[in-house]
Amino acid sequence: MRVFKFGGASVKDAEGIKNVYDVLQKVGYEDVLLIVSAMGKTTNALELVIKNYFDKSPELSSAVQEVKKYHNQIVMDLFEDEKNAVFAAVNSQFSDLEYFLANNKSPNYNFVYDQIVSFGELISTTILSHFMTFMGIQTQWLDVRNFIKTDANYRDAEVDWELTQKNISKNIKSKILNITQGFLGSDENNFTTTLGREGSDYTAAIFAYCLNAESVTIWKDVPGVMNADPRYFENASLLNQISYREAIELAFYGASVIHPKTLQPLQKKEIPLYVKSFINPLLKGTSVAKGVDLEPHLSCFIVKKNQLLISLSSIDFSFIMEENISEIFALFHRFKLKVNLIQNSAISFSVCVEDKFNNFNELNAILSKKFKVDFEENVTLYTIRHFNDTAAHTVEENKVVLLKQVSRETMQVVTKEI
Ligand code: ADP
Ligand code: ASP
Ligand code: MG
């Protein structure tokens, strides 16, 4: 079986959905499992619904309406006949969402988040699968929550591989086109969980692993994995072939074209990953597989914006040692700050972190009792794999360099715009 993943950008409007059909016509859909994300920026739009819900804001209903309007427009563009079953199916999903908003009693933000945000994927796959049927492709819509089982760590759930493997081996056999949701799973009480933002690539890898799939293809709005994000670097060039190792490094440092969790399950079973353009599906794109990198010396640039640089020093000039460091890390873990860079000296300790959950103020209050805390918000972290002088110059030019760290293959620079 081949596993294909279509992300938000590929299904952002009716044209996008039609394009998925065209891609399938060109590359074949025999024995294929499609993993699909929410359409366009729907997950962000649903995050706004969640915010309004918790704020008890009068804007809640208009936030829901926005999501509805967006999907209804796509459905109307795709299906002229209002008698098509897709209209009832999508309406029923929205009724479920509204029922949840009206009746939920749980105050647990992360739990509520997952119950709401999951409608993005449930609705997108409903529309896509009706469209494929409409175009004459026989499909099977699968609720991914019956397959991927996780713990109850809402918003960042951990996969229960044993149960997931059992479900997938038992229930996915058919040769017809299977369509399911990326990003979602369910816990032991069958409540919806999510695997972390941008987690649909990972879903594709989970299925591929459990199915011993022939390959995974993630269809993107770029020609493949490039040596830099083309949004920020002109002249980015395509990497034709990279090893799992290189891909893991790039994804780990933040090359967002592949979700970092995707590679490990694939590497374990040596299942090749193709990153291809959904605009030019017949082009080769990037192949990630075991073996040697074809372009080992091309410098690769990774940009992470909106970072927070925190420097801690001891108040009494004592050293920052193992016990302090482990305590600091336990706190970062507790407050869900993702550490992207660490630098340590005798009496000070600097980290560049991402505060996705806006917990820094709370954490700072605790840290400040023990350390002198300095921080700089809104800094950018550049990582260069296979750096050289020219590459370093490119990222440092016209910026204030706040911190720099160099290892054999990798240079990391924290900068602030002048
Ligand atoms: P999806 O639609 O599957 O969610 P993403 O938007 O997450 O796709 O990933 C594609 C985007 O990743 C591209 O539009 C590009 O801007 C960005 N990107 C970041 N780093 C790279 C890189 N090294 N090569 C290609 N694209 C990259
Ligand atoms: N829709 C989810 C997100 O935007 C998952 C994904 O697209 O990968 O984070
Ligand atoms: Mg994405």
Automatic annotation (TrEMBL):
Keywords: Amino-acid biosynthesis, ATP-binding, Kinase, Nucleotide-binding, Transferase. GO terms for cellular component: cytosol. Its EC number is 2.7.2.4. One of its GO terms (biological process) is homoserine biosynthetic process. It catalyses: L-aspartate + ATP = 4-phospho-L-aspartate + ADP. Residues 2-277 form the Aspartate/glutamate/uridylate kinase domain. Belongs to the aspartokinase family. PANTHER family: ASPARTATE KINASE, ASPARTOKINASE. This is Aspartokinase. It comes from Flavobacterium pygoscelis.
